[in-house]
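Q: I'm writing up a methods section and want to include an example of the input and output format. Could you take the sequence below and give the corresponding predicted structure tokens, formatted cleanly so I can copy it straight into the document?
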Amino acid sequence: MTESAIHRELYNAEVLANALNLGGDRPLLKLLDGTVQTVAEVRDEVSRFQQALASLGVGPGDRVSLIAPNRPECLHVTHALQMLAALYVPMHPLSALPEHLTVIRDAEVDVLVFDVQFAERAADIARAVPGMRLLAIGRSTVAEDIHELAARFVPRSLVAPPVDGHDITRLGYSGGTTGKPKAIPSCQRSGFLCGLHMQAVWEWPDVPNILSCAPLTHAGGAMFMPALLRGGTFLILPRFDPVQVMETIERERINCMMLVPTMIYALLDHPRFGAFDLSSLETVFYGASAIIPARLKEAIEKIGPVFAQFYGQAEAPMVLTYFRKADHDVNDMNRLASCGLPSPWVRLELHDPQGNPVPDGEPGEIVVQGPLVMDGYRDAALTAEAFRGGWLHTGDVAVRDPGGFLRIVDRTKDMIVSGGFNIFPRDIEIVIAEHPAVAQVAVIGVPHPKWGEAVKAYVVLKPGMDAGEEELAALVAARKGSYQAPKSVEFIAAIPQTPVGKPDKKALRAMAAEMA
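A: Here is the clean output for your methods example:
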């Protein structure tokens, strides 16, 4: 055996195969109807799915996409692709046909796996992209059922393929909130290090009993490996429904879950919130978009000190910073606006536009280095721009306090320039959200003939409560100065969201332009 073989690194596929092959009859996956799959049964399903996909010619480097709500097959398909060294191309089930076609064409997808409820969408895609193979989860007139195909094969022990740390394992796409979605390749090295960091730093219950209601095709799937490796269970909900989530927490004594901020707001604002026992919760991970500090304080006071935040982006996933449960000080709103402390396993700095580090208390763009960072975009020009100066530029502007905690003030592309002043919408959103009647708020800049841009706020009020435009503007003026006060406030029923639950400011700008 050569020295290189002795020191050959393990990546996620090999860790997954080892854990599934040796897991035995311990319960692992659970469904609402009471169905339970043991570790061994999950291994068998992955093996059958792997062989089924291989029978269609799927192999190393081939691109396979998936459109489905949360269901076990989402995990089985993605794990089978890992065993084949194929590329997974996730597509959000809530995206529209044009967005799906953009991804399919740009990624040059070979096989589309779809839940039968998306059969019509799959047929539309197939007509637009001739030559692509279809495979259904369930019986469909459009394509063969992956279960029927997989049933022809005898399950066997999983054997991970030989891979290199730079091999692409996933081809994700940005949300397109500022333009056309861009392809973001994720390599074996980055995915493996992200998982290791989650295991080492995140605060898991001793035996995690995880409820999964975030999309498994995206970040929600990251919760599976901790359940597997820590002897826990993983209960899958088809989608996020506030009552169903709270009922399940109470009935199943769930102790761990992942939510985006809008999900937390939906739980708090539901009229039946107080009717359920949520005391089993030990850790609620939250992230993907900024949370309103006033609402986080409310959540901690009503649910408990169980909240922990993660921050990252597809280019350097999920673990750039971590905000521990104990660091959430409900008496310090600046602290609640934080995304936590930088990871010890990345190099992270805040830079001014000239690439110089900024002192504590001054805003600067978060830039990072380290093996967690992607190798680059598929577009060389985009890579050069993102990696300028030898750092990955995240596009997020933050302020660091003397204790090292980072507070993200906004995206560089969302900054408003009004009358020569730089205004960060996030700062204004935090102030407006402190009004007791405000449930959600999003702030954008709109064209103004005199100032260049003017501040506009979109506000969702809590049920049965009221606030006036002048009242909210005065609140901001008193705290941030009159130049930052919204020149207009529009009250709407809901803030539009991207498919992954982030406020969709591109949609808000389109709404504002249409009104103008």
